[in-house]
């Protein structure tokens, strides 16, 4: 089958000796051997060589023009905005994995990450000066030593004024101690002390094991029907079959955490959820809507988004995001000064040879740690909009590239933004590493800047 892109032309043979007949001229038109894709669909083109009176038929598929190439401005972040939180070559901490970051009401920043890829003992560091310096905590719970998955960390503000910081680590059940469900650890004193892990929901309501992965990829506070904040948070994760679950976090009268039974929240779109392999949904509230940015682990599809207008009770059909947001572990947040949407993620680049299609399961490559800045409505309307910033170049010794981009973000009232991620940032070391990517030098880096200053810098230069 021949492919023609919508709105583009293709030349067939020599029109001097040939006649053409299109079975469905609403899909394709042809004039003197030049075919034009009119609308998406399939048809048959019959070509006759008048000199020999021989004919042949060609199946034609008209497809949407290339949607896989990034065509918005892209800038590299200057090294002056980058700094290292921990880099430990030739030690037991040579590979440091996926971090998360939270901010307390005092302005304190708390970062947590594993020693190892995804699982391993948790390292926690604290900064009380907006990330200028970091101090490692050594008085941490012993149960953190047996963490089975990348940690997520969240700060919760209750209606009575109490602040709760919660770290969550999933138990996928397919490695380590083979536990399923998830673990939580809580601090109620600004991150000074932490509880030992408490375990939740090893078994689903249907009696099957809860193969939990990246819990909670998002933990978002809910509102009541009058738009008032309530002491309830929606958490999401996925399992190894790419079924996405939600669970609600509340606190009882004695202040103890309570997690509701997990339930799938994309059942209405199970076929798409499975085909795209939707996972690690990064959620953000936009007025009365909750928008989720979804990773497509199939690597045959762009990233998608979903929307809930009823506090996570129901969700819209997954739709594709623009190519400039193709990636993994999206972390969306708003710039505190301009209100611009910022999304941190590990980029995925598709259609490596520029044919306009994802040709097979190898037609993709993971790239660098990226940040998109733009209008949230443009992103969900699939408009070319905004710009991208490469926050860090990753040199993973890996067939499909980038091992980076899981990130945490914090913003300050003066416009300062702090983001942290992990990655193979040392080009020389990684290019000479002869071992596995998961034992290469991988370390924790932060970037710190004000968006307006970056924008002025970008636009003042002749790119």
Automatic annotation (TrEMBL):
It comes from the Bacteria. InterPro entries: Sialidase, Sialidase_sf. CDD domains: Sialidase_non-viral. SUPFAM superfamilies: Sialidases. It holds the Pfam family BNR_2. Residues 162-319 form the Sialidase domain. This is BNR/Asp-box repeat protein. It comes from Enterococcus italicus (strain DSM 15952 / CCUG 50447 / LMG 22039 / TP 1.5).
């Amino acid at each position: 089958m021949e492919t023609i892109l919508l709105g583009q032309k293709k030349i067939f043979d020599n029109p001097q000796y040939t006649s053409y007949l299109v079975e469905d001229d609403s899909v394709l038109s042809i004039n003197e051997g030049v075919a034009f894709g009119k609308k998406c669909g399939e048809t048959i083109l019959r070509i006759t060589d008048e000199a020999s009176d021989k004919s042949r038929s060609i199946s034609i598929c008209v497809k949407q023009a290339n949607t896989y190439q990034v065509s918005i401005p892209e800038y590299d972040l200057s090294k002056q905005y980058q700094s290292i939180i921990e880099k430990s070559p030739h030690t037991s901490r040579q590979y440091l994995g996926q971090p998360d970051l939270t901010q307390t009401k005092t302005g304190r920043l708390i970062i947590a990450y594993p020693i190892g890829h995804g699982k391993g003992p948790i390292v926690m560091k604290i900064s009380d000066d907006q990330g200028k310096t970091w101090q490692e905590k050594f008085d941490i719970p012993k149960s953190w030593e047996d963490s089975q998955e990348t940690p997520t960390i969240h700060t919760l503000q209750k209606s009575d004024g109490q602040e709760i910081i919660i770290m969550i680590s999933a138990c996928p059940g397919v490695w380590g101690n083979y536990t399923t469900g998830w673990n939580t650890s809580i601090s109620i004193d600004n991150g000074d002390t932490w509880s030992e892990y408490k375990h939740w929901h090893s078994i689903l309501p249907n009696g099957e094991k809860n193969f939990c992965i990246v819990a909670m990829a998002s933990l978002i506070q809910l509102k009541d029907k009058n738009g008032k904040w309530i002491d309830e948070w929606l958490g999401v994760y996925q399992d190894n079959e790419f079924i996405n679950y939600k669970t609600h976090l509340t606190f009882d009268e004695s202040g103890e955490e309570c997690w509701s039974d997990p339930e799938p929240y994309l059942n209405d779109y199970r076929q798409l959820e499975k085909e795209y392999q939707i996972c690690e949904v990064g959620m953000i509230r936009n007025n009365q809507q909750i928008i989720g940015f979804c990773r497509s682990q199939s690597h045959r599809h762009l990233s998608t988004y979903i929307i809930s207008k009823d506090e996570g009770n129901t969700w819209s059909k997954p739709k594709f995001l623009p190519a400039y947001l193709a990636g993994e572990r999206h972390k969306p947040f708003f710039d505190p000064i301009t209100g611009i949407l910022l999304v941190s993620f590990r980029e995925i680049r598709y259609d490596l040879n520029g044919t306009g299609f994802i040709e097979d399961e190898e037609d993709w490559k993971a790239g660098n740690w990226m940040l998109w800045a733009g209008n949230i409505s443009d992103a969900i309307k699939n408009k070319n909009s905004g710009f991208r910033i490469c926050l860090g170049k990753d040199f993973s010794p890996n067939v499909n590239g980038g091992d980076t981009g899981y990130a945490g973000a914090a913003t300050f009232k003066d416009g300062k933004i702090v983001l942290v991620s992990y990655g193979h940032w040392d080009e020389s070391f990684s290019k000479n590493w002869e071992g596995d990517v998961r034992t290469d030098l991988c370390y924790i880096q932060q970037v710190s800047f004000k968006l307006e200053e970056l924008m002025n810098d970008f636009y003042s230069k002749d790119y």
